[in-house]
Amino acid sequence: MSLNKFDPQEWGHRLDAGEQNDPTLLLAAQLEKDKPGRRPLPLRVKTDLRHRLVTQAAAVPTRRLDYWVASLALTALLIILAALIWSLRSENPPTAAATQDTELIAAVPTGPAIPHEAEPGEESWKLDQIRQSVDGNKLMIQTTLAYTLTAPATATFSLGTASSSSIAEPPEEILGTFVLGPEPVSAIGNELDVQFTVDPWDVWQQFNSYDLILAVRLERETADGPVVINLSDQPFTLRAEWLDQIWFIRATPEPGTPLDNTKFVVVLGYRLLSAPMADVQLLIAAPGWENSMGSGRLPTKGVSDPRPVSRGEGVLTFIFTTEDAAYLHTLLGDEATLAVTMLSPGEDGTVRALIQQTFSQYRWPIVGADQPPDRLWFISVSPESGATIREGDTIIVTVGYELYAAVEGSVHLALRNAEWNGVSPPINSLGGQSITPGTGQVEFQFVVDDLSTLQARVGQFARLEAQLYGMDAQNQTQQRVEVTLDEMPWRLGDVMLGIPRLIPQVTIVPEDGAVSAGTRLDVLDIQASADSAAGMMPITFTVRLAYQLATRDAEEGTIMIWVAAAPDGAILPLVLVAETVRAGAGILEATFTFNPQRDLDEMLRQPRRYQLMFSFNKVDDPASLFWITLPPDWEFRP
Amino acid sequence: MVKTEEERLVEQAKEDPEAFGRLYDRYIDQIHTYIFRQINDDALAQDITAAAFEKALRNLHRYHWQGVSFAAWLYRIARNEMIQRLRRERFLAPLRGWMLSSLNVEKTTEIREQQNHVQQAIKKLPSRDREVIILRFYEELSSAEVAEVLGCSTANVYVRLHRALTRLRQELATDSTTVTNLTERENYVSE
Q1: Is the pLDDT at A565 greater than 70, yes or no?
Q2: What is the mean pLDDT of residues B44-50?
Q3: Same structural domain, B17 and B85
Q4: Are residues B67 and B97 part of one domain?
Q5: Of A92, A423, A471, A478, which one is least surrounded by beta carbons within 10 A?
Q6: Could you say which of B46, B68, B103 is where a domain stops?
Q7: How confident is residue A191, by pLDDT bands cut at 50, 70 and 90?
Q8: Residue A572 in contact with residue A521, Cβ under 8 Å?
């Protein structure tokens, strides 16, 4: 094998060509060859989803039209509102005229830079400011450069991109090159204003994944060649907020009013320039909140519905109800503020956050009501306490809860063996549901499908349990609050576990056309009983069969009773009964015990469903006659 | 340039709901299988599949055929959706123990029986390795399509695939019975 350096391109081309001449390619070929089958969606789910999607698709053109009509109407309304607000309020929103003025967005922290081999005072440059203004859909970056020159120099303004998580050299785009002064300049404080126009789409597009670095690079020719001085030592990040803005106009209750259970009305102004459309969403948050939506630290009720906006400026009024004060206090602490997000769908379907900001200057004190303990209780249980339940029974449980110490939660139900003597009683999970914090109730409806995990005997009792889980607001990871109901008085009595519900006097007639007319095997009766002990119990069967062997070419036949795995009917290598019968009619009664611990090896002994199968064949010819498989409701689990 | 049948169907789907339905029929099981293979959770896989197709429908007008197949575009949406949902689901991790304690062994055993050793070994790989193997070999995407889904270069896909396959071989090597055939074939190849 060659030890040459790995060449991904060369290896990749061999992979794509289907070559198999090295171990990894060989493994690749095997993976392609032995790939597992697809896992289709359940048909009902698939059909429902298709219907929903196709219906949605049909509604899109109309919705778009409605949307634009609504947008036009809204725009007209907003213009009127904006005019009113302009005339009534002293705190005016930015206007188109204002946005065309430059606004200071940052001062670049550069000290005087002394070129190579230059004496202090002889030459220095300093980049004072970067300003931006918005003109239509363009972002203009304006720099002010103060310099002292004794010789002509070239200034290069570079706009580069760099991934915040990458150590790679950022690619640069040179926005402009300028010669500073045709003649030597010595006056300190000369200013050079340079304006660049950047397509906001580029800026915005990069914003999601990258930071932008704006740097000024100065070059000066010396006897040794060009000397380069980078005036921006610190990465300078352009943010989309400079293009898109949301500002607070007013709110009811007014900032400073203690919050209680109340309706919030908030009026915001917005400007969207970096994308054609976006959704604006407002939420109650702790001052200083910076997390993104869905981080799990946000209130679930104190969030407005998303409001679609299109490119331009406008005013939005949000009306929504806050959480309970107690819950808000748990969530946010002593004060609440407003946070806003402006999200826009990207080309590839991902959502990009154009704005995530809090209005921390506007705050509402939260009256710290005593936080009640989290609670969980059963409201109703069906069937009633004490009833007998079996696999296949439907159980409906309604659980009430109060959850304040968490921002997300869920309730889970389980059955537990109530008569277990050791530690960790066996449990049977019944399922769980997510809940909204606060006070509420949740209903469970489930079918009991597997009681064997309780390892209980006939007549023993099981207890219903509910557990409440929540994630604490102060811990995003895995903090949980747990409440377990230890003594739920609902007990499961007279549980029949492991016993097949066998129906006596059922006759099964084989329908195999290959069997000689008149040959039949009828299962007349099956009785079964579990013997003892927790865990996998031996089951003793008593079976009565009526048979009639009518073949002319055999004087004797063999009736065998097997154990098969349900529901697929795969036959396990275990014959429980093998009886030879003579031609003609007769009754065969057999009593036998199936003991998984004894009869099956470990792999086959895992708790699972079984069924009995019957074979009837001519002696020495196992394939000669027929098999009988019992109906599904005759399956059993030891 | 002559449009492919699928390209025409995608263009048609932007106007005709039933055409989107045909795209749905074509890819629904594929996408669902991909998601299920990554997260091994039926209910969650169904949710994510539905969300991915809804997102695809909403953004279909943005999709333009520029050398990237529609399938790769769909996989990318599904992947993004899956990542977002899994971030949220991390919160539920503490529940897993409680749930698992009550799962009967039957289910585990059945799953184990259904999977061959190679698939079990793939499940043990880091998610980055598992993902690239599933996309390239099980989902039958080309290397260029995998690059599109993962948002990286084709060369990077090759590097990741090579690394993943090397790790998979190491994983399989712990099960000597599984690799017997492979080893024999490798010996044959190297001779």
Answers
A1: no
A2: 87
A3: yes
A4: yes
A5: A423
A6: B103
A7: low
A8: no
On whether any CB of chain B is under 8 Å from the CB of A23, the answer is: yes
pLDDT of A238 above 60: no
Q: Domain containing B74 — which CATH number?
A: 1.10.1740.10
Task: Please indicate, yes or no, whether residues B98 and B16 belong to a single structural domain of this protein.
Answer: yes
Who has greater pLDDT, B155 or A517?
B155
Structural domains counted in chain B: 2
Residue of A nearest to B186 (CA): A23
ipTM tops the 0.95 cut: no
pLDDT at A147: 66
pLDDT band at A555 (very low <50, low <70, confident <90, very high): confident
Sign of the CA dihedral with A113 first, then A115, A121, and A123 last:
negative
Decide if B25 and A50 are in contact by the 8 Å CB cutoff. yes
- Asked if the C-beta of A513 comes within 8 angstroms of chain B's C-beta atoms, the answer is no
Amino acid at B93: A
Answer yes or no: is pLDDT of A38 > 50.
Answer: yes
B122 & B175 share domain: yes
Contacts of residue A477 in chain B, CB cutoff 8 Å? 90
Q: Which domain holds residue B123?
A: 106-191
Nearest CA in chain A to B115: A36
Reported as a pLDDT band with limits 50, 70 and 90, residue B31 is: very high
**B180-189 residue pLDDT tens:** 333 333 332 2
Q: What is the pLDDT of residue B67?
A: 66
Find the helix packing angle between B176-190 and B154-173, rounded to 10°: 120
- Mean pLDDT, chain A, integer: 66
Torsion of CA A443, A447, A452, A456, to 10 degrees: 60
C-alpha angle A389-A394-A400 in degrees, rounded to nearest 5: 100
Same domain, B91 and B111: no
Task: Based on the fold, state whether residues B63 and B138 are members of the same structural domain.
Answer: no
Q: At CA A503, angle to CA A498 and CA A507, rounded to 5?
A: 135
| pLDDT > 50? residue A506 | no
Pairing of strands A225-230, A351-365: unpaired
A50 to chain B: nearest residue by CA?
A: B21
Residue to mutate among A41, A427, A637, with most B CBs inside 10 A, is A41
Shared-domain flag, residues B17 and B88:
yes
Calpha distance A114→A128 (Å, rounded): 15
Which chain B residues are Cβ-neighbours of A469 within 8 angstroms?
A: 94-95
Between A522 and A214, residue with greater pLDDT = A522
A450 touches chain B (CB under 8 A): yes
Identify all chain A residues contacting B158, using CB atoms and an 8 Å cutoff: 8-9, 11-12, 15
Q: Six-digit token pair at A293?
A: 């939506």
Query: Is 60 exceeded by the pLDDT of residue A199?
Result: no
Find, among A122, A124, A142, the residue nearest to A132 by Cα: A142
- Torsion angle of C-alpha atoms A238, A165, A158, A122, degrees rounded to 10: 100
Q: A165 versus A213: which is more confidently predicted?
A: A213
pLDDT at A305: 73
Instruction: Judge if B114 and B184 occupy the same domain.
Output: yes
Q: Which candidate from A9, A41, A428 shows the least CB-CB separation from B155?
A: A9
- What are the residues whose beta carbons fall under 8 Å from the beta carbon of A154, sequence distance 6 or more? A177, A178, A179, A180, A218, A219, A220
Compare all CA atoms of chain B with the CA of A406 and give the residue at the minimum distance.
B91
Query: A281-294: per-residue pLDDT in tens?
Result: 888 877 765 544 33
B118–A8: do the CB atoms touch at under 8 Å? no
Residue numbers in A near B115 (CB within 8 A)? 36
Q: How many CB atoms lie within 10 A of CB B59?
A: 17
- Closest to A35 (Cβ–Cβ): which among B88, B138, B166? B138
pLDDT, greater one: B38 or A529: B38
CATH code of the domain covering residue B191: 1.10.10.10
Q: B1: distance to nearest CA of chain A, Å?
A: 24
Mutate to test the interface with A, among B33, B66, B91 (most CBs of A within 10 A): B91
- Among the candidates B103, B133, B154, a domain finishes at B103
Residue of A53, A201, A433, A472 for testing the chain B interface, max B β-carbons within 10 Å = A53
